[in-house]
Amino acid sequence: MGHGMVRLTRQVAERIAELARLLLDDEDTDMPLQQLTDLALELIPGSSAAGVVAATDGTWIVTGSPAGIEDLHRQQLQSGRGPLVETVRHGEARRIDDADRELRWPEACRALTGLGLRSCLIVPLRTDRKPGGALAVYGRQAEAFAGSGQDFALLFAAQGGVAVRNAAAYRSCRELVTNLHAALESRAVIEQAKGILVAEHGCDPDVAFKELSQMSQRTNRKVRDISADLVAGRIDRVQFRPAGDA
């Protein structure tokens, strides 16, 4: 590997690490992929345009720079034809060395030349979903991604995919922890409310919870909210007097 490629590889690793740190703090679904798109355009030699597509909740997130790349990708996804679709479908790279001579994807090639582009390389982007996604880079010159350029793009996509996947996993874990904390807090306030009713009316905990549930149904409010109001003194305890209580 030449010194130039070693330098570029190190630069990719450093920038991907920087991107990964940003992704951990970013709640926007589209922003990480746009950041990856911009980074690919900046770092991958020969690229004059770039874009990323990724599956999410039954739809596709599409980013591109310049904006015409997004339209190019959406057209392929809608028609089910083109190198982008094949990369996503088969998990394999696809390359066009010269759009003026390429015969496999005439529609995509016409769209490419219409944007002033002649070559492209599309590589799989490994995410946490099936299908995953793809990273596409485009050049204004023929054979812009032949030789070591393809190897470099594959390396970039692999590291970028790991960064996006790890960020998604981190956000999922963070969301799970948040939900668990909320569930524990909810359980705690309900237990407090039950304790108040048990002490006030001398009933057992099951009866106390039944009273809370019945008020929840009558008022169309959550048991947790009813319990919080009871604990805070915003609801008169007499309203929860069990049936038959004197």
Describe the structure.
- The protein has 246 residues and is α+β, with helices and mostly antiparallel strands.
- It has helices at 3-24, 31-43, 68-79, 83-90, 106-114, 148-201, 205-219, 223-231, and strands spanning 49-56, 59-65, 94-96, 119-125, 133-139.
- It is rod-shaped and about 85 Å long.
- A five-stranded antiparallel sheet has the order 2-1-5-4-3, sandwiched between helices.
What is the count of DSSP helices, taking H or I runs of 4+ residues?
A: 8
Q: What summary fits the major beta sheet? A: 5 strands, antiparallel
Strand order in the largest sheet: 2-1-5-4-3
Work out the helicity level. 55-70%
Report the radius of gyration as a whole number of Å: 28 Å
Provide the low-confidence segments as ranges. 1-6
CATH architecture of the largest domain: 2-Layer Sandwich
Helix/strand order, N-terminal first? HHEEHHEHEEHHH
CA-to-CA gap between the ends?
89 Å
**Tell me, what is the CATH class of the largest domain?**
Alpha Beta
Class of secondary structure makeup:
alpha+beta
